[in-house]
Specification:
This protein is 71% helix and 3% strand. It has 295 residues and is mainly α. It has a single domain (22-285), classed as ABC transporter involved in vitamin B12 uptake, BtuC, CATH 1.10.3470. The strands form two sheets. Strands 1-2 form a two-stranded antiparallel ribbon. It has a two-stranded antiparallel sheet with strand order 3-4. A hairpin with a 2-residue loop joins strand 1 and strand 2. The longest helix is centred in the N-terminal third of the chain and has 32 residues, at 9-40.
Length: 295
Protein backbone atom coordinates (compact mmCIF):
# COMPACT_ATOMS: atom_id res chain seq x y z
CA UNK A 1 0.00 0.00 0.00
CA UNK A 2 1.45 3.37 -1.05
CA UNK A 3 1.89 6.09 1.52
CA UNK A 4 2.10 9.90 1.49
CA UNK A 5 4.00 11.45 4.41
CA UNK A 6 3.69 8.14 6.21
CA UNK A 7 -0.10 7.98 5.78
CA UNK A 8 -1.76 5.36 3.55
CA UNK A 9 -2.94 6.99 0.32
CA UNK A 10 -6.45 5.58 0.62
CA UNK A 11 -6.89 6.96 4.14
CA UNK A 12 -5.54 10.38 3.13
CA UNK A 13 -7.76 10.61 0.03
CA UNK A 14 -10.76 9.46 2.04
CA UNK A 15 -10.27 12.25 4.59
CA UNK A 16 -9.73 14.78 1.80
CA UNK A 17 -13.02 13.67 0.26
CA UNK A 18 -14.81 14.08 3.59
CA UNK A 19 -13.17 17.49 3.94
CA UNK A 20 -14.31 18.46 0.43
CA UNK A 21 -17.91 17.44 1.20
CA UNK A 22 -17.87 19.36 4.50
CA UNK A 23 -16.23 22.29 2.73
CA UNK A 24 -18.99 22.28 0.11
CA UNK A 25 -21.60 22.62 2.85
CA UNK A 26 -19.52 25.32 4.55
CA UNK A 27 -19.29 27.18 1.23
CA UNK A 28 -23.03 27.07 0.52
CA UNK A 29 -24.04 28.03 4.06
CA UNK A 30 -21.47 30.81 4.35
CA UNK A 31 -22.53 32.03 0.90
CA UNK A 32 -26.10 32.46 2.16
CA UNK A 33 -24.80 34.30 5.23
CA UNK A 34 -22.59 36.52 3.08
CA UNK A 35 -25.48 37.36 0.74
CA UNK A 36 -27.73 38.35 3.65
CA UNK A 37 -25.05 40.37 5.43
CA UNK A 38 -23.68 41.96 2.27
CA UNK A 39 -27.09 42.99 0.94
CA UNK A 40 -29.13 43.50 4.14
CA UNK A 41 -26.42 44.21 6.72
CA UNK A 42 -27.97 41.60 9.07
CA UNK A 43 -25.96 38.94 10.94
CA UNK A 44 -28.35 36.01 10.47
CA UNK A 45 -27.68 33.67 13.41
CA UNK A 46 -30.79 31.65 12.45
CA UNK A 47 -29.00 30.33 9.37
CA UNK A 48 -28.20 26.99 11.00
CA UNK A 49 -31.86 26.58 11.96
CA UNK A 50 -32.90 27.15 8.34
CA UNK A 51 -30.33 24.54 7.25
CA UNK A 52 -31.86 22.06 9.72
CA UNK A 53 -35.35 23.05 8.57
CA UNK A 54 -34.46 22.28 4.95
CA UNK A 55 -33.27 18.80 5.93
CA UNK A 56 -36.42 18.17 7.97
CA UNK A 57 -38.72 19.48 5.22
CA UNK A 58 -37.05 17.03 2.82
CA UNK A 59 -37.42 14.18 5.33
CA UNK A 60 -41.10 15.02 5.97
CA UNK A 61 -41.86 15.29 2.24
CA UNK A 62 -40.44 11.80 1.73
CA UNK A 63 -41.93 10.08 4.78
CA UNK A 64 -45.32 11.81 5.03
CA UNK A 65 -46.14 12.59 1.41
CA UNK A 66 -43.94 10.24 -0.63
CA UNK A 67 -42.22 13.13 -2.41
CA UNK A 68 -38.88 11.95 -3.79
CA UNK A 69 -35.45 13.50 -3.37
CA UNK A 70 -35.46 15.38 -6.68
CA UNK A 71 -38.68 17.23 -5.94
CA UNK A 72 -37.41 17.92 -2.42
CA UNK A 73 -34.44 19.77 -3.91
CA UNK A 74 -36.97 22.30 -5.21
CA UNK A 75 -39.82 22.21 -2.69
CA UNK A 76 -37.89 22.18 0.60
CA UNK A 77 -35.78 25.30 -0.15
CA UNK A 78 -38.93 27.09 -1.37
CA UNK A 79 -40.65 26.17 1.91
CA UNK A 80 -37.69 27.52 3.90
CA UNK A 81 -37.66 30.68 1.78
CA UNK A 82 -41.37 31.25 2.51
CA UNK A 83 -40.68 30.97 6.25
CA UNK A 84 -37.85 33.46 5.73
CA UNK A 85 -40.20 35.89 3.98
CA UNK A 86 -42.62 35.79 6.91
CA UNK A 87 -39.78 36.42 9.40
CA UNK A 88 -38.32 39.25 7.32
CA UNK A 89 -41.66 41.02 6.84
CA UNK A 90 -42.85 40.67 10.43
CA UNK A 91 -39.62 41.11 12.43
CA UNK A 92 -36.35 41.78 10.63
CA UNK A 93 -37.38 44.76 8.55
CA UNK A 94 -37.73 46.90 11.70
CA UNK A 95 -34.05 46.40 12.57
CA UNK A 96 -32.22 47.38 9.37
CA UNK A 97 -31.36 50.87 10.60
CA UNK A 98 -30.25 49.69 14.05
CA UNK A 99 -26.96 48.26 15.31
CA UNK A 100 -25.94 44.76 14.12
CA UNK A 101 -26.36 43.47 17.66
CA UNK A 102 -30.16 43.76 17.50
CA UNK A 103 -30.38 41.62 14.37
CA UNK A 104 -27.97 39.09 15.86
CA UNK A 105 -30.02 38.79 19.07
CA UNK A 106 -33.31 38.51 17.19
CA UNK A 107 -32.09 35.81 14.80
CA UNK A 108 -30.45 33.96 17.69
CA UNK A 109 -33.83 33.91 19.43
CA UNK A 110 -35.53 32.74 16.22
CA UNK A 111 -32.98 29.92 15.93
CA UNK A 112 -33.71 28.77 19.48
CA UNK A 113 -37.46 28.80 18.82
CA UNK A 114 -37.19 26.82 15.57
CA UNK A 115 -34.81 24.28 17.11
CA UNK A 116 -37.06 23.96 20.18
CA UNK A 117 -40.13 23.23 18.02
CA UNK A 118 -38.35 20.44 16.14
CA UNK A 119 -36.81 19.02 19.31
CA UNK A 120 -40.23 18.91 20.92
CA UNK A 121 -41.68 17.03 17.94
CA UNK A 122 -38.81 14.70 17.00
CA UNK A 123 -36.42 14.56 19.97
CA UNK A 124 -32.68 14.88 19.56
CA UNK A 125 -31.98 11.52 17.92
CA UNK A 126 -31.32 11.62 14.19
CA UNK A 127 -33.75 10.48 11.49
CA UNK A 128 -32.28 8.52 8.54
CA UNK A 129 -32.89 9.70 4.99
CA UNK A 130 -32.49 7.00 2.35
CA UNK A 131 -30.19 7.65 -0.58
CA UNK A 132 -31.84 7.92 -4.00
CA UNK A 133 -31.32 4.71 -5.94
CA UNK A 134 -29.20 6.43 -8.59
CA UNK A 135 -26.60 7.47 -5.99
CA UNK A 136 -26.13 4.12 -4.28
CA UNK A 137 -22.68 2.63 -4.73
CA UNK A 138 -19.33 4.22 -5.46
CA UNK A 139 -16.88 5.02 -8.24
CA UNK A 140 -13.67 2.97 -8.18
CA UNK A 141 -10.86 5.48 -8.74
CA UNK A 142 -8.13 2.89 -8.18
CA UNK A 143 -6.59 4.59 -5.14
CA UNK A 144 -9.96 5.00 -3.37
CA UNK A 145 -13.69 4.33 -3.60
CA UNK A 146 -15.63 7.56 -4.17
CA UNK A 147 -19.29 7.37 -3.00
CA UNK A 148 -21.55 8.58 -5.80
CA UNK A 149 -23.68 10.75 -3.55
CA UNK A 150 -20.71 12.61 -2.08
CA UNK A 151 -19.47 13.35 -5.59
CA UNK A 152 -22.92 14.71 -6.44
CA UNK A 153 -22.94 16.91 -3.31
CA UNK A 154 -19.65 18.54 -4.29
CA UNK A 155 -20.77 19.15 -7.89
CA UNK A 156 -24.19 20.48 -6.84
CA UNK A 157 -22.83 22.81 -4.12
CA UNK A 158 -20.10 24.23 -6.35
CA UNK A 159 -22.55 24.76 -9.23
CA UNK A 160 -25.01 26.66 -7.01
CA UNK A 161 -22.24 28.73 -5.41
CA UNK A 162 -20.67 29.74 -8.72
CA UNK A 163 -24.07 30.52 -10.27
CA UNK A 164 -24.94 32.73 -7.29
CA UNK A 165 -21.60 34.55 -7.51
CA UNK A 166 -22.10 35.11 -11.25
CA UNK A 167 -25.63 36.51 -10.82
CA UNK A 168 -24.64 38.91 -8.02
CA UNK A 169 -21.32 40.08 -9.44
CA UNK A 170 -21.79 39.89 -13.21
CA UNK A 171 -25.44 40.58 -14.08
CA UNK A 172 -27.79 43.57 -14.12
CA UNK A 173 -29.92 41.98 -11.37
CA UNK A 174 -26.83 41.85 -9.16
CA UNK A 175 -26.09 45.49 -9.82
CA UNK A 176 -29.68 46.38 -8.83
CA UNK A 177 -29.23 44.41 -5.60
CA UNK A 178 -26.01 46.21 -4.73
CA UNK A 179 -27.47 49.60 -5.62
CA UNK A 180 -30.58 48.94 -3.55
CA UNK A 181 -28.54 48.20 -0.44
CA UNK A 182 -25.82 50.84 -0.85
CA UNK A 183 -28.19 53.73 -1.65
CA UNK A 184 -31.85 52.65 -1.32
CA UNK A 185 -33.34 56.14 -1.82
CA UNK A 186 -31.48 56.67 -5.08
CA UNK A 187 -32.37 53.16 -6.25
CA UNK A 188 -36.06 53.80 -5.53
CA UNK A 189 -35.83 57.04 -7.50
CA UNK A 190 -34.83 54.94 -10.52
CA UNK A 191 -37.89 52.72 -10.09
CA UNK A 192 -36.35 49.80 -8.17
CA UNK A 193 -38.70 48.23 -5.61
CA UNK A 194 -36.15 48.13 -2.77
CA UNK A 195 -38.39 46.59 -0.04
CA UNK A 196 -39.36 43.72 -2.37
CA UNK A 197 -35.73 43.22 -3.35
CA UNK A 198 -34.65 43.10 0.30
CA UNK A 199 -37.34 40.52 1.10
CA UNK A 200 -36.39 38.33 -1.87
CA UNK A 201 -32.71 38.61 -0.98
CA UNK A 202 -33.35 37.32 2.53
CA UNK A 203 -35.58 34.57 1.13
CA UNK A 204 -32.86 33.55 -1.31
CA UNK A 205 -30.18 33.51 1.40
CA UNK A 206 -32.17 31.27 3.73
CA UNK A 207 -33.30 29.21 0.74
CA UNK A 208 -29.63 28.42 0.08
CA UNK A 209 -29.39 27.16 3.67
CA UNK A 210 -32.49 25.02 3.09
CA UNK A 211 -30.98 23.59 -0.10
CA UNK A 212 -27.79 22.73 1.78
CA UNK A 213 -29.98 20.94 4.34
CA UNK A 214 -31.64 18.84 1.63
CA UNK A 215 -28.24 17.89 0.22
CA UNK A 216 -26.98 17.07 3.72
CA UNK A 217 -29.97 14.89 4.69
CA UNK A 218 -28.65 11.64 3.14
CA UNK A 219 -25.08 12.33 4.37
CA UNK A 220 -25.81 13.13 8.02
CA UNK A 221 -28.74 12.06 10.13
CA UNK A 222 -31.59 14.59 10.08
CA UNK A 223 -31.57 16.03 13.59
CA UNK A 224 -32.79 19.23 15.30
CA UNK A 225 -29.20 19.75 16.47
CA UNK A 226 -27.57 19.63 13.03
CA UNK A 227 -27.89 23.39 12.53
CA UNK A 228 -26.44 24.42 15.89
CA UNK A 229 -23.57 21.97 15.39
CA UNK A 230 -22.40 23.64 12.18
CA UNK A 231 -23.36 27.31 12.46
CA UNK A 232 -20.38 28.37 14.63
CA UNK A 233 -17.92 26.93 12.09
CA UNK A 234 -19.83 28.63 9.25
CA UNK A 235 -19.61 32.00 11.03
CA UNK A 236 -15.86 31.45 11.38
CA UNK A 237 -15.69 30.76 7.63
CA UNK A 238 -17.53 34.01 6.86
CA UNK A 239 -15.27 36.01 9.18
CA UNK A 240 -12.13 34.52 7.64
CA UNK A 241 -13.35 35.12 4.08
CA UNK A 242 -14.60 38.62 4.87
CA UNK A 243 -18.11 39.60 5.99
CA UNK A 244 -20.27 40.13 2.92
CA UNK A 245 -17.71 38.75 0.43
CA UNK A 246 -19.42 36.26 -1.91
CA UNK A 247 -16.21 34.90 -3.44
CA UNK A 248 -14.51 34.86 -0.04
CA UNK A 249 -17.30 32.72 1.44
CA UNK A 250 -17.04 30.14 -1.36
CA UNK A 251 -13.26 29.82 -1.48
CA UNK A 252 -12.77 29.94 2.28
CA UNK A 253 -15.48 27.34 2.90
CA UNK A 254 -13.88 24.86 0.52
CA UNK A 255 -10.35 25.55 1.77
CA UNK A 256 -11.24 25.18 5.44
CA UNK A 257 -13.11 21.95 4.78
CA UNK A 258 -9.98 20.50 3.16
CA UNK A 259 -7.73 21.83 5.95
CA UNK A 260 -10.05 20.28 8.53
CA UNK A 261 -9.85 16.94 6.69
CA UNK A 262 -6.05 17.03 6.54
CA UNK A 263 -5.86 17.93 10.21
CA UNK A 264 -7.88 14.81 11.07
CA UNK A 265 -5.18 12.76 9.35
CA UNK A 266 -2.03 14.37 10.73
CA UNK A 267 -3.17 15.86 14.06
CA UNK A 268 -6.69 14.60 14.97
CA UNK A 269 -6.72 16.36 18.35
CA UNK A 270 -6.68 19.77 16.64
CA UNK A 271 -9.36 19.03 14.02
CA UNK A 272 -12.15 20.60 16.09
CA UNK A 273 -10.24 23.85 16.71
CA UNK A 274 -8.11 24.37 13.59
CA UNK A 275 -10.76 26.60 11.93
CA UNK A 276 -10.88 28.92 14.96
CA UNK A 277 -7.09 29.07 15.20
CA UNK A 278 -6.99 30.15 11.55
CA UNK A 279 -9.72 32.71 12.24
CA UNK A 280 -7.72 34.21 15.12
CA UNK A 281 -4.56 34.45 12.98
CA UNK A 282 -6.43 36.04 10.05
CA UNK A 283 -8.14 38.60 12.29
CA UNK A 284 -4.78 39.57 13.80
CA UNK A 285 -3.24 40.10 10.37
CA UNK A 286 -6.24 41.31 8.37
CA UNK A 287 -9.27 42.26 10.52
CA UNK A 288 -11.57 42.61 7.50
CA UNK A 289 -10.92 39.01 6.42
CA UNK A 290 -9.02 37.61 3.46
CA UNK A 291 -11.42 38.99 0.84
CA UNK A 292 -13.15 41.73 2.86
CA UNK A 293 -12.81 45.43 2.22
CA UNK A 294 -10.88 47.51 4.71
CA UNK A 295 -12.94 50.47 5.91
Amino acid sequence: MTEIFGVPTQALMGQLMIGLVNGSFYAMLSLGLAVIFGMLNVVNFAHGAFYMMGAFFSWMLLNYFGVNYWWSLLLAPVGVALVGIVIEKTMLRWLYQLDHLYGLLLTFGIALIIEGIFRDQYGVSGQPYDLPEIFKGAFDLGFMMLPKYRAWVVVACLSVCLATWFVIERTRLGSYLRAGTENPKLAQAFGINVPLMVTLTYAFGVGLAGLAGVLAAPVYQVSPLMGSNIIIVVFAVVVIGGMGSILGAILTGLALGLIEGLTKVFYPEASATVVFVIMAIVLLIRPAGLFGREK
